[in-house]
Amino acid sequence: MKTSQVVADRPSAVKEIHVVWMTTGLSCDGDSVSVTAAGLPSIEDVVMGAIPGLPKVHLHNPVLAYEVGDDFMKYWFAAAEGRLEPFVLVLEGSVPNEEIKAEGYWAAMGTDPNTGQPITTNEWIERLAPKATAVVCAGTCATYGGIHAMQGNPTGAMGLADYLGWNWRSKAGIPIVNVPGCPVQPDNMMETLLYLLYQVAGLSPMIPLDDQLRPTWLFGKTVHEGCDRGSYYEQGDFAHEYGSPKCLVKIGCWGPVVNCNVTKRGWMDGIGGCPNVGGICIGCTMPGFPDKFMPFMDEPPGATFSSMMIGSYGRLIRSLRGITNRIVNQEPKWRHSKPVLTTGYHPKYYGNGNGAHNYGAPRRFETKTR
Length: 370
Fold this sequence. Notes:
- Helix content is 26%, strand content 9%.
- It has helices at residues 30-35, 43-47, 69-80, 121-128, 140-144, 160-164, 186-200, 216-219, 230-234, 262-265, 301-328; strands at residues 16-22, 56-60, 87-92, 108-111, 118-120, 134-138, 177-179.
- It starts with 15 loop residues before the first strand and ends in a 42-residue tail after the last helix.
């Protein structure tokens, strides 16, 4: 996708940006709660103007807002009518299928003044998405459907890209941006939102996304590639119970095949994150979650083969490294307090005659006779 040139020192193209954050998908509001732990940047930094070059940002989130009732809903109606420009639409929670039943609704927020009926989540999406400059999904429920979309669910739940289409583009030509996680990692979400705010302000190029619409710099590597326990895997040294510092693959960790940066980034201020604190990775950032990762805590099918293959190699490597480790854990033999220099150095101007030459003494040579 072609991107325009970005001039870093130019002012923002807009003075104010609104963030309309929908929590009315099928969810637990856990992503809104999660982002309150963000620090790079924090919500406070974004809305209080602490980010250099960023326009004034107004956040409209029903979990975090102090407005209620009509005072809160007026921003939603203004956005739907094109009177809140520009704005970034955030969806939290999966999208139910409202077409599979004869009556009622799965999820809604607010009341339509013309009909007196609740406005469904689906209708809000249809009203707001075409007016939004950018659309971002917070958490796995919004991105791919998540727990609510597992097999046997009664709602026909799906992710936003499944609802609007994977090739959908905003009026500014920006694809849907997915930031998965159950819940979303706080800094991942706020960093992505900040990027989009800069893009709306004309201060950053098109956001780079992978084929699942995830930011590439956040989800380009696997859990395993950033895991502190990865070296144990290489050595075929696996945990067989919780509480072990070793590789967790054999007790249910899917880290080698899951795109997520939590082992590198941690959870809050670099601390925490599933395998970092002894928990297995259950694949919560992946489109196939949860069905393709169940039953949780069972050894992944591929892990049986891979751990068997790495076992022989790992045992050999561990043995060889153990030998080397014992060698390098011993000091060299010339480090001693004896009155003789045994380092291999031969001084010319000092010495006590014990393996070294006396200072100022003439050099002595041994002569051999035939």
